[in-house]
Records
---
Amino acid sequence: MRGALLVAGTTSDAGKSVLTAGLCRWLARRGVRVAPFKAQNMSLNSMVTADGAEIGRAQVMQAQAAGIEPTAHMNPVLLKPGSDRRSQVVVLGRPVADVDAVGYRAHKDRLREVALASLARLRAEYDVVICEGAGSPAEINLRAGDIANMGLARAAGLPVLVVGDIDRGGVFAALYGTIALLEPADQALVAGFVINKFRGAPELLAPGLDQITALTGRPVHGVLPWLDGLWLDVEDSLALDGPRPPTLPPHGAQTLRVAVVRPPRISNFTDLDALAAEPGVALRYATSPGELADADLVILPGSRATVADLGWLRARGLAAEIVRRARAGRPVLGICGGFQMLAGEIVDDVESCAGPVEGLGLLPVRVEFAPEKTLGRPEGRAYGEPVRAYEIHHGVVAVEGGEPFLDGCRAGAVWGTTWHGALENDGFRRAFLREVAAAAGRDFTPAPDVSFAALREARLDALGDLVERHLDTAAVERLIERGAPDGMPVVPPGGPPG
């Protein structure tokens, strides 16, 4: 089998990333050399490849589903929003500019060429490339400069599957409207639909499937059922509003309660997935001081806007509550941007251009932002356990005291590190939780045999199973090998074809 396919969606978080990963795992299990691709990704969840390139975390997860090492060509353009109007532009794993929407247009032609070259490289190296779109292809205000959805499909001749989330409601209107808003040349490449997150009676859904096919001339190639506990490395914080890793009930003497502060520009919150998957840990996200009240551990996660999010913490009253807790000996962990917030002073002439800013003063460190971004895959030890992690930051932390903790430090019941992914190391995670439980006075012992890597693999296998059992895989194979069928009908905005 050789070819490529684009998975588009009616909305953000419709299931594009999950379906792409499922297709990669299904094909890989059949012995097909397959790779994921996303031309342009807007996400604050990123990771570092083995050769030091920063790409979207979802593409790393999809590469794992395919059983291959991720590379920058799988996500050649990454946009990291620092505010509602400006984003850092990362090209082939390296930041090249910080622009607003108008300034970004000047980069479009070059970025299109970069994306197409990366896709061509992957297609030459692998049998099949499963491409993921961005947002929705029906964002008609963005179509002229599109390089991730129909602009990519047209340039590379890709057949397109459109996935819709039925759990949100209105899925048939979303599928029909997506097609109807596309120009005829774009519609010609849309070969079918996939409905995602279905939970209900199939016999009630069947008439709708028949009608959407009659109205658009395009078949529904599968209905993926709702699957509880199927969380994976997602792209944006919209996913935090939905189900996250299953935990035990948040009450009882043996349950360790963890509150994660959720600032506006939270990044790399996948750091917490391994912690939330630990039996006996109840994790929640917090935006007010009261939500920290009964927590045994408070975590300040990564942030794309450290100084701005620190101001948000102060305005919300969260900063004062975190300081009060820490001074009372109640555990606090800062990761990357959250670690920077715990410093005595932050000097930022790069990200916010705010200059010197007073931090929370809970760790004996000073932070100064550097123009060059630090990207790496460090290794070390803590609590006698090996730790492999990754780092992505402009803030350079100078440790001036305390006890060593990974690359950062600890002072009393406050820990800080710039390393992302440390909690995915099973031995380290258990040792850290034992320390936290002791500091919190909680009678809690981590499970001795939980493997987060095995749990992630099992969930990727579950995605492969979904594809194999609930998609018309023969039809998907034909699309990959032959492209969209000729003569796909045009759906006019005003009504069905006729």
Note: The two ends are 36 Å apart (CA to CA).
---
Amino acid sequence: MEEIQAGVSEERSNTGIIRAEREDIAADEVQKYMKKKLDEVLGEPFKPRSVTIFRLPAWFYENSKDLSEPKIVSIGPYHHDKESVQTMEENKWSTLRDFLARNKNLGFDVYLREMRLLEGKARERYSETVNLESKDFVMMLLLDGCFILEFLLKLKAEDWLAICSLNWAIESLSSDLCLLENQIPFFVIHKLFEIQNGCSQNCDQGLCPLLNLIYEVMPWPIEEFRFRQAQISCSQIQHLLHLYYTGVLPDNQLGGEQGYMVTGKSCSKPIPCASQLHQAGVIFRRKRSPRDMFDISFHDGIMEIPYIQIDSSLKNYLWNMVGFEQSQRFKLDQILISYVALMSSLICTEMDVAILERSDIISNYLKNDEQVATFFNQTSENYFGLNYTNHYFHGVFKAINEYSETIWIKYRAQLMREYFRDPWTSILVIQAAIILVLTVLQTYYSAAK
């Protein structure tokens, strides 16, 4: 009996040991997993990461897929697995071959080595952890960077068939390269161009050959205004969309009379729509010789706005540039969202679009006027953060609201002139009002019985 009890005790002891060993193993696995995750965290403690390439918020991404997802080519990690871009993924290899063939003195290993050196810095630029192994991430940087450069070089040579056999696809390619979620860091592209062409010596003096190439060949969606060269060095440019953003900004980011970042007492609400202002006597005119697309003014009931052609290309660029501005709203001024807020205030329905079209301010190349109204309202609703008391068009908003508030005085004066110019007219108007009130009361009591 004692031997049996001893055996049971020994078995329990062994079971306890096994359980403890298993718990130790499990604890080691948790420790290893947590250490691995901590090691994968990018950046340094207490230092913000230099994130420049963001995902759009999911809560409105579903309503803007056509403006947010690449149609032909994926750049960067966010959309590389989409079915629609797989054909171009295969074509990137022939594009890489063409790019490498431009300088036969350099081996493939030179480019690859530089991309390996940039991997950590490039990963930090993405707002989400990129779940690609090191070899796949480095390969993506090389393929996508060389694709962009080869696309630019073939545009310059007007080698259309070498770019794509479908002419319509070239415009889509250009648009895809400027999507908010479809980017790689500019320093990756610059390094590849530098390796092949040696352009680093004068870049900080604004003489970057790569920037000159981009300015020369990349299509600009707002044809009415010249693409402005960036007032920052190429080392400060975050990606191609950022470069486009700097190209649309007004000189020195300052407007005219509207006055950016005005402080003090100001308007605190949006303005009436174009049809309401039109009924109130406001005249809309196309601005002649505007400085830029933001050169909007309001004086004595006359609103002048620069001409703009609204098509699918403009929608794409404007949506993504506003998204970029909002993604860094604590670092950048709210110039584009101010413009969208102004236009969405003016354009609520297709009736408002028609008024601006008749005034030669808008040319609509979308299917109908309703699509224009929907675009501006959708863009304004999805992007947030505009302070109506302190923004780029503060002066315009303030002047329009003050004008609107005085309209009733004008109507009252008109009423006094037309209906109360003599005693007999006044008596007739009052009599008619009394009859109307009595009729309404009689109808009400009859219905109540």
Note: DSSP finds 18 helices and five strands in the chain.
